[in-house]
Amino acid sequence: MRTDVVVVGLGAFGSAALWRLAARGVRVVGIERQAIGHAFGSSHGTTRLFRVACMEHPGLTELARKSLALWTELGERTGETYVRQTGSLNVGSLTSAPVTGARKAAAIGASTGDLSHQELRTRFPQYNLEPGDVAVWDPGAGICYAEPTVRAQVAEARRLGATVYPHTMVTEIDVRADEVIVRTPTVDIAAEQVVVCAGAWLGKLVPGLPATPRRTPLFWFQPADPESEAFRLANFPSFIWELADGRGLWGHGSDDGFGVKVGLDGGSHRTGFDPDELDRYIHPVADIAELAAAVGRAFPGLDPAPVKAIPCMVTDTPDGQFLVGRYDERLVIAGGDNGHGFKHCAGIGELLAQVTTKETPFADASFVDPHRF
Ligand SMILES: Cc1cc2nc3c(=O)[nH]c(=O)nc-3n(C[C@H](O)[C@H](O)[C@H](O)COP(=O)(O)OP(=O)(O)OC[C@H]3O[C@@H](n4cnc5c(N)ncnc54)[C@H](O)[C@@H]3O)c2cc1C
Predict the structure, then answer these.
(1) Domain spanning 2-48+146-210+318-368 has what CATH number?
(2) Which of 29, 314, 321, 348 to mutate to test the pocket of ligand 1 (most atoms within 8 A of CB)?
(3) Per-residue pLDDT tens for 163-190?
(4) For the chain, what is the HEC assignment?
């Protein structure tokens, strides 16, 4: 089989790349080793936090805005909602990463508002704040939907002409001078270029990249008083909170179809394993004890025992930024999500399509250039 572009891995980044390439009329084939929208990579569960004033890098604001624009356009066609802009809190001391990072994003145009300690306490009594805690409000933020969006992006790509092979594992990417051959047990595809978006498996398919899988389970909680409305999404919007000891808590409230979600960064998550060997057991002590203690202290109105947990993975890079762009003449890559990639995936898909077709990128992507190391 021969085509213009093959996209390997149809999770968040790959499904978006497939969609944006198909939208340009490029002959594109997508290959995914699992079902479309599955629970074995980085993109499962119902929701992810959507932020615009991103603390991780000011350049991310442009990517989030592009995702929002593309998902809004897609939603107008499908009648579905992919982002709910409920606003979001960046909480911590004046020198914490969520507060300083959101202010840096504001300095280059993200719209934000400051909340003093007292304002924060009054408006969000759910928080057991430290005395120096303040917040930056990100009004364009909220939540986005993970598995439904991956499925929608693939469905849209198919509608626009893409060919999709689910349940098909790429075993080799053979880059030659005049073409690239993508091999699977059932079909070999020759293409001009390949876009590799293999998530935690990126380093296995493209050896030499500084991409390290990290096990990061997802957890859901419920209010100590099951009748309480305090932790509904409308009253408890998404947040990132740097605790006094430097660890990060993040999450959002519940709504119909999903529970209160809270996660802890800087906990005892394991790294450097083979993603095919991910430990899928949730360990009462290693996984839950530290998070439950942090939740119990931070939000006294929540029952600190999680009601649900699912193992998941992220992929770390040395500087916490993605690996997105051209890797060589025939190879374009996207990965290294560092646990904050979903909200940017449609924007990254657009960027990947632009890089592949040699258009001018809509944003400065030098901070995610895979050659920067
Ligand atoms: C607990 C947790 C919380 C998070 N919270 C947020 C959040 O609030 N906001 C946010 O923006 N982001 C968040 N993220 C990060 C976000 O989910 C990831 O950035 C995003 O899902 C990464 O997508 P990906 O395409 O790189 O990986 P994936 O979605 O895993 O896609 C990679 C795909 O490649 C496939 N694949 C691998 N090898 C092969 C092969 N050989 N052949 C064919 N297919 C292959 C895999 O099966 C997989 O489907 C969170 C992540 C986790 C784990």
Answers:
(1) 3.50.50.60
(2) 314
(3) 999 999 999 999 999 999 999 999 999 9
(4) CEEEEEEECCCHHHHHHHHHHHHCCCCEEEECCCCCCCCCCCCCCCEEEECCCCCCCCCHHHHHHHHHHHHHHHHHHHCCCCEECCCEEEEECCCCHHHHHHHHHHHCCCCCEEECHHHHHHHCCCCCCCCCCEEEEECCCEEEEHHHHHHHHHHHHHHCCCEEECCCCCCEEEECCCCEEEECCCCEEEEEEEEECCHHHHHHHCCCCCCEEEECCEEEEEECCCCCCCCECCCCCEEEEECCCCCEEEEECEECCECEEEEEECCCCCECCCHHHCCCCCCHHHHHHHHHHHHHHHCCCEEEEEEEEECCEEEECCCCCCEEEEEECCEEEEECCCCCCHHHHHHHHHHHHHHHCCCCCCCCCHHHCCCCC
